[in-house]
Design brief:
The protein is mainly alpha-helical. It has one domain. 40% of the residues lie in helices and 6% in strands. A hairpin with a 2-residue loop joins strand 2 and strand 3. The longest helix is centred in the middle third of the chain and has 15 residues. The chain is globular.
Length: 178
Amino acid sequence: MNRTTTATEEQPDLSRTVLCIEHIPLAELQQITEYYGVTLQQVASHHTIPGSWFGDPEAGIIRMNLYVRNDTPLHSALHELCHLVCMDNLRRTTLDTNAGGGYDEEDAVNYLQILLADQLPCCGRLRMMQDMDSWGYSYRLGSATAWFYEDAEDARQWLFAHQLINPQEQPTWQLRQG
């Protein structure tokens, strides 16, 4: 049966189409942040998220702290965590909100974000890529999945060169040095 939406019905909330912090066991994400020496800071509902580049409900980063709220999308939390992992030591020690970095680093952040999703039983890479597409990440090939499998060799090589993944594409749980 097909159903049409009338003007009086509420439109779907885009933030609810993706996994948010409130939908996952927080301990799973906290374990990953701890592997990297990052402190996961949970912000109370309706409080502003410190260090959020795009504003609430997006995750924030200040030095070695990752800030999330229950309505923060999981993909945002992993993305900001990956910025912390991929940036050099100097930027990390002075980090407040703006991760900076170039295109190569941003691609590596996106790739690592997808790999880390596999470390979360509540998510996995396919769900992460779906959420990235739903939220509006844009790729030349049209989707995160197409980019990851067909056009991300440079990101893979960047992560490997900086010893952030091993040859089997598993995280090394190290921060970028230098």
